[in-house]
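Subject: RQC P-site tRNA stabilizing factor structure
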Amino acid sequence: MRLDKFLKVSRIIKRRSVAKEIADQGRILVNDRPAKSSSKVAAGDTLTIKFGNKTEVVKINQIVETTKKSEAEDMYEIVDEKYAENFD
């Protein structure tokens, strides 16, 4: 599955266009490598996502084409979450 579609279906990022923009800016790493929105992801991959002052590390548990909101959280687990202390 494409990275931008996974982020939308799993509801990590609400809109696919926003996921595409963030990925194409180089703010997402797949297995510690820079990824574009069209990069393929699979179960077992680790995503590092930079949201402003927050960095989130997520491990993909499963890939599902469509999902309900209640089931979306089963697609991934949050491994680490860091916040920047210096806002300069």
